[in-house]
Amino acid sequence: MSDAQAIGYSDGLVDRVDTLTQKVDGLEADINLREQNLDQKTQECVAKVADLNQVGKYLKPYTQTVNNRLVPTLRNLILTIRGGITHHTEEVTNDVYQHFKDDTGQTIDEVVKSTVNQRFKQDREDAQQASLSAQVSAKAS
């Protein structure tokens, strides 16, 4: 009887060891897959860093140009605006008005009136269509 118990106990231990071995093998496989994924992600990151380095080298002269030329110009413009800019608005207005008329063949007043009339006409047509739709819906009910 004790031999049978020893054999049964031994078989149970073997099963447990086999189960644990399978679990450890599964964990090892999972760890290997994760390491492969991390290696792939690392390679992607390294490639992106290399791309960014290339972009940085490309942008460097443009950034220097902006810093050396544009920034001082903008600074001077801001300082000038703070001090105030004066001009004669009537001359500017007349010039804009004349150029507009030359380019379009119409005065600003004519363009505004035409646009307003077109919008009123469209709104009236939309309202009439909505009214007809409401009447049809009311008759259908």
Helix count, per DSSP?
3
Q: Helix-strand pattern, N to C?
A: HHH
Number of strands: 0
> Main sheet, how many strands, which sense, barrel?
none
Structural class by secondary-structure content: mainly alpha
Layout: helices, strands, pairs:
Blueprint: H1 2-83, H2 89-104, H3 108-140
Give a nutshell description of this structure.
The chain is mainly α.
Q: What does this molecule look like?
A:
The radius of gyration is 41 Å and the shape is elongated. The protein is built from 3 helices and no strands. The termini are far apart. It has 141 residues and is mostly helical. It has helices spanning 2-83, 89-104, 108-140. The mean pLDDT is 85.
For this entry, give a set of tags.
141 residues, mainly alpha, 3 helices, elongated
